[in-house]
């Protein structure tokens, strides 16, 4: 049935003016980085439900990540979190990754789990604590250098819980000073991705509370600093795709932390709450990829796509597979947008035709397309089914309970 | 200066037509229950910052709670959380409380920290898990009987994270069945307070997601079931005081879990984010206390006022003192509303005069009033300062780090 | 291509265990009522952009509505709004409808556009204004009787803008008293659908602010009173499908006012913001249609599906067509959910399999299915294209500018 | 009683280390601009309730505004909205203002009420419409020149209602180009204040949707462009005072449009929903006024304080008085913050002491202080009472119904 379905799909899309081969090329070029911590136990403040078979260290996390790449063919790199993935010998870790067919991706410093950071890290009033935090990031830059990673992905939990607890502007100055030192330490090919978050763990103000604040910092730091968009880190109602478009236009979009949310930073499987939003984000990226300005096209081509989720009740590897497949699915749909048709409708200010041209692409079933792409990539047409049929999930049960968690 | 300030205050209020003695009587009658878990370590999913001096068991928690009562005179009871406060001999715990001048208050079952509860407790599809959860609540009812508590305070973390994960209506049926068995086990003088919550730890649907669902359950269970309003458990923008008024009017308001929030269920010190909202809640209660219907007055008089907060970065005892003092402050202000004046403005449909009559009461500085009330209650005029001057905070440091947490 | 696409679709669904003929029956049974006011000019508080060709009276509105039915085959009834659609002779209006192949549907009283209603209608403190409001609803019941409509659809704009402006509980009493009189006047076959709304035009409290309040009223009024869910009338993040499930389970779901929103009550084309939510609402309905309880099945079968939108910038008839087609599309997708598969996954508490079983149905392209259904209904396979090709849009331009608006 | 109350207040504050004379100086320096349109009829999309006595033209609006200044002494300027306040001879209007003791303040172009603007004004795809919109703003700059106003206050309603309706980045480019031409036309002493808004009237994306977008534009335009913060134009939960602090720190805070909201852009009387937020905004300003950096102090000193409300059900002049008095009240409270005490607590990272130092100032009753300040300004101690006792409200009834509205 795949064959006839794909034949039909191809004919249909060709008639719409879509170059299916080009779509396939784009899909094969898509790379999604999975995070080492996504394979560990995680939960809410109320409870971490420990699962059996969780990797016990960074090496085992890479093994699980390798499964995701093995079955999808599009997840060749893994993000690390230091110190969660701290090892004595990073070269050895990289070698392990390499044997598994992986590379090591973004290095994520941890600036929220030391007792010292109760009142902040890079923004802390105490110079000694800022020093410690800066040094930790510098150490992460060293790790990046060692493992050939070019991305430092910085999420700052800093903020306050009560009005007056600290000076908002004072903290802004300290943050910028800290970031400047960090920025200076970057190797020329490295990028510092600055993440913002609406709230949590801080409940009154968050030092990098929205894209505007992250953008302001990145702008003042220089071209190697860019903004990281975590799809779950916004106020209710925020038009995330507009922020994406804005950052692309300013050439300051560094990458994504993909996940879904209905309420706060729920960290659910990306695409599971409002898949249309994910599709619309990719529409903005696709438009930028076809832009007339070199700089915009270049930014769009260099976006770091990363998953950042917290699977509380799901089995980890299948949850990660689902996430990756969802991103692939909605990217594929966005590639079916007939941009020429959209532009024509826009030029005629025909609201319904323009809206329709977008939504129409969303309505197509891209399963046959993805099946063919996967076959051409040499991976199973249905990665989830293939993984579930494999014995990997059974084998790791031998690890027992009590693996890595955060 | 207190004297002259109070003299001035009394004169001013008397001229406004406020019966200051009656206000003082109301203030002396206010009782606020503090939660045992509010004295332990707590935090966010990212980090629990362990403090030195945290009580190591239920007995020491009561000792800390006794301090709050000692300095405020209005916190004579303490809510327990089972199993966090599980002891071999509850009679001994009660005796300890009694020696400290305290009683034991609401008993809070814990239906979210067992591995079994990963997919719910009272709503779980598996009968054995529901059985376990029901049995736990029945055990709590026994504890209540033993310690002479008349309130079972039920917060249900049950819910799902994804569409389709479980049948919403199926869970509703199971929940009702579970609650019926629990309700049957209540002693005649006991009340079952049913708490609702917008979200967290469930991120797709929460089985008791709003007041309407809790009300629906309470209504079908019977007169001993009432709704518990946690001030932080609502969608952004929700008019909480309207829900309070509605429940009072239906004689189904069981009590409060007080705390503040700016974003989600932030569990900050009550009154620290939008104190006007707390005041407006008390305005509805005050209006109900003066209602012409006996049943409404009675409901208003029997509200259980309880604190439920999660102090992540604050020293616990002072944070609890601040919370209690804030509730007292905004209740005092609500008592200064000239209801006759409000009603007159309402009858004339004079929007600005009515609004003004409410806000005016909020603007008064009730410090002199509270100082006099405290003196008459035999506690320090400034409880916070008195506590900070005492050596209690120093003495408990001997407990070391690593006390109770949740 | 339709043929081969449908053949493929049918085979695919049959292999999944879906009874395609039954799906088609369900789709043919779906009826969506369009609102007369949806064909008139509308806008925001800032501006109503007047379009050319807007119907000038109720008769012309019906003519436009007939187009929507003509091209879709599933919109045989039209909701009226009194006094916007006030005519001297309702029998004549009904005859006009009948000639157009239409019936007259829900009668919507207007309780917000008289100067008298500045402080409310059914809740107003002034008995004379309540009298006027009640009388207006009674008049609408008479209209319903005349035009053979069995639904009174009541949206109440009542509320206050400031704390203290009026007594929340006093208004609740007045509202119930007013509704009782209205309820008494219903003919036995009539239903009173009570709509709630989070806010707007009231900005402090809305007398029917959420489903719990509407449910409370409906419950106390009796079996002919039910709740009306307007999809845009909720706080951000609200799980609307859970409310739908809850009301179905209590047999109190009267109907829907469909529209989309990203922010407040945006009244956009239904399905244009988060189509997955619309699909999930239909999943709950579909589950109820297959319930073991007669009463639940019956409620699900009697839901009144109505559009209620405010097309500010869109041409009206195509916007209505798009809305109707979207509802049809997402209902069709919900019909492709394999309930047995979902239940099996639920019973195994297999979160990912359950979620997947739901989402999978959403991913299918139902275009071939809908094309065949439409052919069998005797309407064009692509109603939008057919309408745009017709000269109706051109012909009505003769009406000029300045037609009906609200 | 005022005397003794003030004596007590002064003693109390002096003992706290507050320089009451300095506080009074600050209060006397506070100027709040009221908007001409705030005196006209306004409403929601559902209904504009027409009041009797509404000014019929710009001249009469100034007369009403003069009352507000007459009774408060702090509202010497009035913002104009073109074309709502269009007159043949602006010099004559200015002369009228001058006779009334007023000056003309910010000039507000109207870019949303022409039929042409259905798809935007400065962002519109059609060059001719952008031209018209730019020309209108240039005309407003001319008006500003004529009436000696130095502020152009630009609110842009531009946005889209549906994904794909127009190119987000294309609109951004057009907007910047349009703003550049406008910026070039500014006289050297003029400031262009760029307002942002979360949503409404656009419901999918708003071209200037948050402070980050307005800041981005202002930064690229140059030093005469600044950001205007309308307190009601944010997503739920947004920390507005943090944005204020951020903009002050970047010297890009142009001014405020004050109003209150509980839900969307409710445009209620400022300070009526969450007065603590208004106070916290002033805390940030007060801190900036005392900053060590000249540029920050200078920005804080040059903030344009403007009211922008939509009084739907309130009598206009008293509503404006209440707004002005509220701003004055919460500014006064912020002036009572003991900054040295706050800073000391911050340096000791004493969360509760710092929070307390802020909230304490909020708790003071500033009525006696304001009464004395008003006496010294030569206005009534109770401006609202004085106005209500005057016959102005009666006299204007002669204007009848049907005055100016928007």
Automatic annotation (TrEMBL), chains A, B, C, D:
One of its GO terms (molecular function) is metal ion binding. GO terms for biological process: L-lyxose metabolic process; rhamnose catabolic process. Keywords: Isomerase, Manganese, Metal-binding. Residues 88-267 form the Xylose isomerase-like TIM barrel domain. InterPro entries: L-rhamnose_isomerase, Rhamnose_iso-rel, Xyl_isomerase-like_sf, Xyl_isomerase-like_TIM-brl. It comes from the Bacteria. PANTHER family: L-RHAMNOSE ISOMERASE. This is L-rhamnose isomerase. The lineage of its organism: Bacteria, Bacillati, Chloroflexota, Ktedonobacteria, Ktedonobacterales.
């Amino acid at each position: 049935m795949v064959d006839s379905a794909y034949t039909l799909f191809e004919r249909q899309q060709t008639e719409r003016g879509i170059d299916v081969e080009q779509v396939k090329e784009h899909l094969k070029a898509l790379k999604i980085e999975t995070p080492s911590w996504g394979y560990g136990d995680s939960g809410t403040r109320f409870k971490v439900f420990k699962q059996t078979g969780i990797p016990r260290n960074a090496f085992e996390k890479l093994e699980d990540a390798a499964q995701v790449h093995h079955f999808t063919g599009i997840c060749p790199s893994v993000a690390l979190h230091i110190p969660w993935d701290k090892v004595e010998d990073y070269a050895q870790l990289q070698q392990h990754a390499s044997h598994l067919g992986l590379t090591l991706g973004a290095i994520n410093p941890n600036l929220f789990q030391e007792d010292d950071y109760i009142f902040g890290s890079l923004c802390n009033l105490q110079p000694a604590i800022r020093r410690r935090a800066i040094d930790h990031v510098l150490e992460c830059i060293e790790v990046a250098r060692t493992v050939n990673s070019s991305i430092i992905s910085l999420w700052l939990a800093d903020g306050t819980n009560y009005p007056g607890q600290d000076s908002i502007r004072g903290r802004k100055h300290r943050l910028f000073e800290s970031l400047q030192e960090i920025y200076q330490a970057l190797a020329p090919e490295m990028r510092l991705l600055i993440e913002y978050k609406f709230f949590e763990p801080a409940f009154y103000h968050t030092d990098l509370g929205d894209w505007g604040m992250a953008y302001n910092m990145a702008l003042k730091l220089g071209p190697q600093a860019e903004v990281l968009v975590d799809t779950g880190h916004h106020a209710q109602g925020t038009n995330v795709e507009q922020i994406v478009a804005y950052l692309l236009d300013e050439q300051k979009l560094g990458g994504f932390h993909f996940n879904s949310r209905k309420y706060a930073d729920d960290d659910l499987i990306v695409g599971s709450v409002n898949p249309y939003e994910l599709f619309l984000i990719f529409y903005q990226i696709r438009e930028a990829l076809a832009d007339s300005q070199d700089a915009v096209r270049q930014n769009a081509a260099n976006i770091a796509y990363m998953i950042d989720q917290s699977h509380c009740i799901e089995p980890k590897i299948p949850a990660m597979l689902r996430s990756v497949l969802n991103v692939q699915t909605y990217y594929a749909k966005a590639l079916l947008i007939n941009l020429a048709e959209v532009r024509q409708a826009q030029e005629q200010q025909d609201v319904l035709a323009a809206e329709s041209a977008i939504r129409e692409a969303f309505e197509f079933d891209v399963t046959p397309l993805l099946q063919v792409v996967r076959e051409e990539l040499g991976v199973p047409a249905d990665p989830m089914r293939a993984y579930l049929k494999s014995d990997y999930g059974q084998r790791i049960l031998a690890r027992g309970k009590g693996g890595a968690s955060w």
